[in-house]
Write a structure and sequence with these properties.
about 110 residues; globular
């Protein structure tokens, strides 16, 4: 619910990305957008992170934020939640280098 406000969406991105996100959100005649966080492994700092993603619709190619830990661009992103299992099986753990990340649900948010 917090991200129903465009200012909260802009604030989810790093300062260097905020102007780009403001421009993207202003580009739509109808104030419709798709905002979510995606999971990713940063290729630079090797952290597993949640990165903000925004597009003008669910079908749009989203603008993906940078790693919140180191600020570098994200390359290994799980772009949609339906493919988390497939993504985790082909993604090596950045810590132990195991060929398969294991995902454990700790809560459910609807």
């Amino acid at each position: 619910m917090a991200h129903a406000n465009k200012a909260n969406i802009v604030a989810a991105f790093l300062e260097k990305e905020q102007e780009k996100v403001k421009t993207l959100l202003a580009a739509s005649e109808i104030p419709a957008y798709d905002f979510r966080y995606g999971i990713a492994v940063c290729g630079h700092c090797h952290c597993i992170v949640g990165v903000p993603m925004v597009g003008l619709s669910a079908d749009d190619e989203p603008y993906v934020g940078s790693c919140p830990q180191c600020g570098k661009r994200i390359k290994n992103l799980c772009a949609d939640e339906e493919n988390v299992e497939a993504w985790s099986k082909k993604t090596a753990c950045p810590v132990c280098k195991s060929k398969k990340l294991e995902i454990e649900e700790v809560s459910y948010w609807d």
